[in-house]
Design brief:
- The structure holds two protein chains of two kinds.
- By secondary structure, chain A is mainly α.
- Helices cover about 80% and strands about 0% of the residues of chain A.
- Chain A contains nine helices and no strands.
- Chain A has helices at about 1-25, 30-65, 70-75, 75-85, 90-95, 100-115, 120-130, 135-145, 155-175.
- In chain A, α2 (about 30-65) crosses α6 (about 100-115), α6 packs antiparallel against α7 and α7 (about 120-130) packs antiparallel against α9.
- Chain B is mostly helical.
- Chain B has one domain.
- Chain B has eight helices and no strands.
- In chain B, α4 packs antiparallel against α5 (about 105-120).
- The two termini of chain B are about 30 Å apart.
- The relative contact order of chain B is 0.09.
- Classes of the chains: A mainly alpha, B mainly alpha.
- Chains A and B meet through α1, α2, α6, α7 and α8 of A and α1, α2, α5, α6 and α7 of B.
């Protein structure tokens, strides 16, 4: 099963590229010019991330280097291990619904601390992608139209986040052990 | 809220490191993390540029529209309270399609248009309607075909297989979305009108 997953995942990107290019060609898009036009945004988007990444990675770096993070997580290791949940990724799981930039930085921190191809690195990546930032989305959308009583929207969003993160851990365990 | 958390991170780290007698570790970590943040952001540029270029082709070729059309049958089931052919229908479907394709920049304006229209249909403007809750439930965990930013970050961090997470991520978002839709439906009935 792990082998199949790996092959299919690795094939997904080239297949998608192929499909988009065929579709663009068949529908008369000037593919190269359009590509260049879109690619110009890559620089701007990446550079715009810098202040968020500096702020968040510095905060997380301080938390880790001071020993406080280990101090807090150590007593949780046994109960979370029993559930199969990697304790190192608890901060990521807890911030995922609150802030996209904080959880992205925590994922990057995990990639750097444990390696992007390690079990923890892969699980962190899957967790980050498993759901979106519920709090941000509700604030922006409800705020834009002035809705004040949001009923059960937050509850449903958080339930879905928990389901996404749980599934991310479960699949990671099944595929990468 | 994030303001408080950030402040708490720093104050507690510095306090703890002083108590534990290793403030120099924090100094080093702060400087190193700041430097790594910039390196990482620069490492993202290439992959992001490629992906945004490709997705611009997808947009021009009408992939968002095709996907939105393919999702139409699900719309009646998900949003029974939105009148057939209402402008909200197009905006919601296009928003979901753009989200599935990972086109966040295109998805947000469409989503804002959708919720403005839903608000016009709302008899009590201060309170969310069931259709709004369903729309945002799907938005908070939307199915993702290709998590491009994550692949870019993995590449920047030196991964030899940055894309191995594509199918696991897709499945996790699928489960999250199904849970969102089911939970939304259960709460909608329980909550009362």
């Amino acid at each position: 099963m792990a082998g199949w997953f790996l092959k299919a995942s690795n094939a997904a990107v080239p297949l998608f590229v192929f499909l988009v290019l065929i579709l663009g060609w068949r529908r008369g898009v000037r593919v190269y010019e359009t590509f260049i036009d879109g690619a110009k945004e890559g620089f701007e988007i990446s550079v715009r991330l810098i202040p968020y990444l500096v702020g968040m990675l510095a905060a997380i770096g301080a938390l880790r280097a001071s020993g406080l993070l280990d101090f807090i997580l150590a007593p949780l290791r046994v109960p979370l291990d029993a559930l199969g949940f990697p304790v190192e990724l608890l901060p990521l799981a807890l911030t995922r619904s609150l802030s996209g930039s904080a959880s992205f930085a925590l994922m990057v921190d995990a990639l750097q601390a444990y390696g992007p191809d390690s079990f923890l690195g892969r699980t962190a990546s899957t967790m980050q992608g498993a759901t979106d930032t519920t709090l941000y989305i509700l604030t922006v959308y409800f705020g834009s139209v002035g809705v004040k009583r949001t009923r059960y929207a937050l509850l449903v969003g958080l339930l879905a986040d928990a389901a996404g993160i749980g599934t991310a851990v479960l699949i990671s365990r099944l595929v990468w052990g | 809220m994030l303001d408080r958390i950030w402040l708490l991170f720093f104050l507690s780290s510095v306090g703890f490191s002083l108590l534990a007698g290793r403030p120099e570790a924090v100094t080093f970590a702060l400087l190193k993390a700041s430097e790594e943040a910039v390196q990482l952001a620069f490492g993202l540029i290439g992959t992001m540029a490629f992906w945004l270029g490709l997705m611009r082709i997808a947009e021009e070729a009408g992939l968002v529209r095709s996907l939105a059309r393919a999702l139409t049958p699900a719309f009646r089931f998900l949003f029974p309270s939105v009148p057939q052919g209402d402008p909200a229908e197009g905006a919601i479907l296009l928003n979901i399609a753009a989200n599935i394709l990972g086109l966040g920049n295109a998805a947000t304006p469409l989503g804002l248009k959708a919720i403005r229209r839903l608000q016009e249909l709302n008899p009590y403007p201060e309170e969310a309607t069931p259709a709004m809750c369903t729309f945002l439930a799907i938005n908070t965990c939307c199915v993702t075909l290709v998590p491009s930013t994550i692949i870019a970050a993995r590449t920047a961090a030196g991964s030899v297989e940055p894309a191995v997470i594509v199918i696991p991520t897709f499945l996790a978002t699928l489960v999250a979305t199904m849970v969102a839709v089911v939970a939304d439906r259960i709460f909608r009935c329980r909550w009362g009108a």
